[in-house]
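Researcher: I'm preparing a figure for a lab meeting and need a structural model of a single chain. I don't have an experimental structure, so a prediction will have to do for now. The sequence is pasted below. Please return the structure as tokens so I can convert it later.
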Amino acid sequence: MRGLFTMDSINAVSSQNALNALNQTNEISFQTIHTNVKSNRPDKTAATSFEGFFDAALKLLDETNRLQLIDERMQLDYAAGKTDDILAVVMAQQKAYSSLNFTVTVTNKIIEAYREIMRISV
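Model: Understood. Here is the structure written out token by token.
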């Protein structure tokens, strides 16, 4: 019984380490996006505004893609038996799902705003 407790403790520590690594990566990515968005403040011209917005949208897509790839890799590693850390796999799935959901929501809002602008009579 004591051996199982020790193995569970090791798995809990490795799960926590994987979770911390994923959280740090996510926080760094969020800080990078936030910093880039702040540095791309529009300066009264439509071209600059669009460029900043376009860059932020591309970064959002890149981050979503990165999280999807991490999720896929972790699922494959778990299925192949390379890891037995189910918590890290589930956390990666949730991050990828949340990121994809956010990206789809932002895309829908952009399309909705575009349609609203197109309805405005000049």
